[in-house]
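Same chain as my last thread, 220 residues:
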Amino acid sequence: MTVVYPQHQPTFFVELMPHVAQMAITAAPMFENPSHLTVLSPTSLYFKQTAGSEHIIVDLPGELTKDAPISCVRVCQFDKPTQTLTARLKADRSDRPARVVPLSATDLSSSGNVWCNACKSPLIKQMVKFLDLPSERWQEMLDYWHCHKPGHNHGHEHEHGYSDPVPKTQLVPRSLLVLVGLSYITALASDINCTIKENIVQCSICNAVLGTFRCRSTVY
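reply #2:
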């Protein structure tokens, strides 16, 4: 029996995940493993769905490692129900730019406070602990830490019959603990010298806008 496939080509989605040195490749719709998925260069792949179909050159958002396999067909995973092909290849870390950190918990701990840019008044009411947030792309690590991502409830709720309204992937501060991102801090409003009007956080001295107010009394 001869199987006749539609003539259209699949759509490729390629994501570079630099913190785990991986290149995630997804193609759909697919009807079986491809006849060719070959490394053409460190930044491109050669793809053919079947031996008789037209080829596609897939441009990559980064470079593959020098030891990447020439043929990638063996590392592909084909999911028949969703007609989706996935693969992961090693990405090269050598061309990553040096990390520049505008804010860090170490610097803020040394200075002891955060000041309003307008009136220079201190914003932290009392002694707090500063703690660095993980990388802004930390969620890309979830596939390596969990068999399923947080927030997937397997179709059930907590023992007490309620669901947590805050997503499991959202990190929130607590009293006397200030979380420090690359370009912002997040803290409880009770730890900051501020006023809040319509979810806008303002300096309590000069009314300069400092940030926004979010759930659980959290200031960003």
